[in-house]
Specification:
The protein is α/β, with parallel strands linked by helices and about 300 residues long. It has nine helices and ten strands.
Length: about 300
């Protein structure tokens, strides 16, 4: 069995203003970091509109299309921008998540990593925000549930910023368990432990500023992993943000690259125990280019190890 690595050159055409942390170079560094790896390389398709409509209303897509600039850049909020290539990039990122689910559930590959941008876990039902346009991880979960008729899907988000969009999109989805660790306090301000979903299907793990990987390991070992075992997912989806790294400029957690490696290995072992190793991982944050490349490389190495 193999690990699928799904990406597309269109994801490099989403161009943000100079100095913006969510920049083209992020994906370029990830692609360079995994050069030569033994992966099943897959071209990300465009997501079908019907797939996007599993999570976002048609009115939201119409608004994005109306906003898309024909040249230059368009500011959606203080953090989130569009350029002429942004919607194609976003549809490729969403399409990669759908294709990854299809491949993993068909047994074509053991697991998959979607190296795409823009990221997705801050995009709410009808609101783009936090660099994000479409909810890729939530879409992967809904596709697995609705198209493949799975009964239980878990989403684990270890980006340093709370995945408010994924939480919003899956809040009422009793078939999905959403587990999210994040620095608290930190933008966007959500992710408190008492935010637990319409059916108790959300678990938030707030982590204090300046805490290290040891704090994270304790939270996952004591809380997240037992919850996953009790839920017994048939597929695990990862929102793989690497901005909890100690070198990241946008937050104040102090994880080392080996902490991302540990977390990935533990989640792979749990997936093997619970759902035949089925993992779909999609890239979220990470804004120090070298730290991002190192942590993403470690993440993919562990996915490959789990698939062999």
């Amino acid at each position: 069995m193999a690990t699928a690595f799904i990406t597309h050159a269109d994801c490099l055409t989403h161009v943000t203003p100079p100095g913006h942390p969510e920049q083209v170079a992020r994906l370029e560094h990830v692609l360079h970091a995994i050069e030569g790896f033994n992966l099943k390389r897959v071209t990300a398709p465009m997501a079908a509109e019907d797939d996007i409509l599993r999570i976002h209303p048609a009115s939201y897509l119409a608004d994005l299309r109306r906003t898309l600039p024909s040249e230059g850049r368009k500011e959606l909020d203080a953090d989130t921008w569009m350029s002429p290539g942004s919607l194609d990039a976003a549809f490729r990122a969403a399409g990669a998540a759908v294709r990854a689910v299809d491949m993993v559930l068909a047994g074509e590959v053991h697991n998959a990593f979607c190296a795409t941008r823009p990221p997705g876990h801050h995009a709410e039902t009808d609101t783009p925000m936090g660099f994000c346009l479409l909810g890729n991880a939530a879409l992967a979960a809904k596709h697995a549930l609705d198209h493949h008729n799975l009964r239980r899907v878990a989403v684990v988000d270890f980006d340093v910023h709370h995945g408010n969009g994924t939480q919003d999109l899956l809040w009422d989805e009793r078939r999905a368990l959403v587990i999210s660790s994040q620095q608290m306090p930190l933008w966007p301000g959500s992710g408190h432990a008492e935010e637990d979903g319409a059916y108790g299907n959300v678990m938030n793990l707030p982590l204090p500023p300046e805490s290290t990987g040891a704090t994270m390991k304790n939270a996952y070992t004591e809380q997240a992993f037992p919850r996953l075992r009790a839920f017994k997912p048939e597929l695990i989806i990862l929102s793989a943000g690497f901005d909890a790294h100690k070198d990241d400029p946008l937050a104040q957690l102090n994880w080392e690259t080996d902490d991302f490696r540990w977390l990935t290995a533990e989640l792979c072992a749990l997936a093997q125990e619970l759902c035949q190793g089925r993992i779909v991982s999609t890239l979220e944050g990470g804004y120090d280019l070298n730290a991002l490349a190192d942590a993403a490389k470690a993440h993919v190495e562990e996915l490959i190890k789990a698939a062999t």
